[in-house]
Amino acid sequence: MFRNKSLVLPVLALGLSVAAVPLMAQDEAPQNWHHLDASKDKIRGVSSSRAYDELLKSRKSSTVVVAVIDSGIDIQHPDLKNVIWVNKGEIPGNGIDDDDNGYVDDINGWNFIGGADGTHVDQDTYELTREYARLKSSYDEKSEDDIPADKKEEFAYYQKLKNKFNNKVRGMRQNKSGFDQIANMYNDASSVITKHLGKEEFTPEELQDIQTEDDAVNTAISQINYILMMGITAEDLKEAEEYFDTALNYGYNLEFDPRHIVGDNYADGNERIYGNNDVIGPDATHGTHVAGIIAAERKNGIGMDGIADNVQIMVLRAVPNGDERDKDIANAIRYAADNGAHIINMSFGKEFSPQKQLVDDAVAYASQKGVLFIHAAGNDAKDVDTEDNFPNRYYLNGQTAEQWIEVGASSWGDESNFVAGFSNYGQKEVDVFAPGVDIYATVPGNEYKNLSGTSMAAPVVAGIAAVLKSYYPDLNAAQLKQIIKESSVKQYKETKVNKPGGGDVVFGKLSNTGGLANLYDALKMAEAMSKKDNKKKK
Q1: Which residues contact 291 (CB under 8 A, 6 or more apart)?
Q2: How many domains does the chain have?
């Protein structure tokens, strides 16, 4: 999943190999940059502010339901509480399944990784770890000669898992060791400056104002300046330490398995009814941020504005701090489809999908009900045309989920910082790019924060889709996808930009449209399509 990876910022600045962690911006981004317009504001946002000012004034809209499958959402956040979906078929708190959908008191959605006793899965392993652990006891210490013919394929899969797991753990430990050196340098230098100034906290300006002949202090100043020049702050150091510790203690821990908390029969892929109705969970930072990008209440005078102005967010908690499980994602998709969601935002992903058929069946089911899927391409700076990334639009039976948009992340800088350095890409697999660096949005505790990731780019596109559906309710999912892709700004298609992971590339080679999603142009295309359809009806 992408949760940790969008919260930890500094690792690439150190030259380490954790390509899933976003680069720091070179300068401070305008707080609302993703809403801005290239021609009017000289910032390559999605032109949503311009769209509302010029195209949507005095226009009527209908309410659109967007399901957010994520880590949970702070439904009491002042910028979100009025846009949270409410299940009108349920009577709150009576302990009865009033609407007879199998879920008791599912007022705002459902938590598929909660226990019946109100507990939660917070940390979980990566799917690589789970798959390796599943097969380890059967194949550990065995050679090719020991394996019967009907198990050869599974044994080859096991060997792939084993090699990848060991390489991942080895790399994580090496990166942590290198990062610890930087952290220790910072902490030691800070202690010297703290002692010199006589106070615990100091600003970069105060650091530069120090005039002394004390060699220890001057060395400490140089060390901190070196770290600050790489774009690393004390907060970044703390978050990165948590990232590495979490990955090693939970994500790659073969002995860790929190599934007992949920209490389901995990082997039963057809089981639908489990979990609880607490849609906030223990850490709703990621989901709250995603929801804010889509739907934070516009023009209420506080915080920030979402892309969409007449939307309800259905909360589906299915993504832990670790890799999501296919069974939970499949059930969350089915819940969304059965309860009226028009759009599903999926800001998560992983490299293995052992129960992919469950997800395929759920995607097909929701597609038949007219749902549009918006999926984040991922934060590993890899080409998803050639490397696995799940979930995806391709069914195991060879067919394709057509109502699916895959989103990469753009940045607000010049060509050398045009594409997010962490973003996955693919000339075949990725459909459009959208703002995903330093996006200011809601987080729990009535607060706001800049976060980066394709996790942020996907809800920008989900918000665009919601606006289109809201003002042109007759548009179906296929038309929404067509409009978003065809209206994406293509003027940068031949522009040479930074390539995620290093080097440069023509922007058009990073997606199948070579375009940046744009609400203003999408609305103009929707209007033209609407007029054309009306003429046909006459």
Answers
A1: 68, 70, 73, 80, 313, 315, 442, 459
A2: 2
